[in-house]
Design brief:
The protein is built from four helices and six strands. It is of the alpha+beta class.
Length: 135
Amino acid sequence: MGVLVSRLHCRLALFVIMAVLARGLPAHHSVAGQFDMSKEVEWTGVISKVDWINPHTYIYLDVTDANGSTVTWQLATAPTAMLRKAGLTKAMIIGDGAKVMITGLLTRDGTKHLGWVNKITYPDGHFYQLARSPR
């Protein structure tokens, strides 16, 4: 009887631990699952902010639309660990406040002002290829 109770307690404890861990994990989707690989676009604007966070770094790009209004795009990219491994820092991505050109992907569901970064090109011509282009 003692062995049976002990096994039951172990299984119950394991179940509780797994349930707690599963609840704490954020949902994560593949790039191809969330972004349309056939809709690569270009944005030109000024990087106003970089959220150096996981599971993805976010770059905020202020873009002037056709009406002259500024629209801020939230553009996801690789995790911070991958960017650091490539030798990049938050300051390097922000640059000096000049206009940059970013190529990337639009969302599959049409969410406004949300995208994925493939490449950032700076005015002096240097660039960071953060993801493979589907083209």
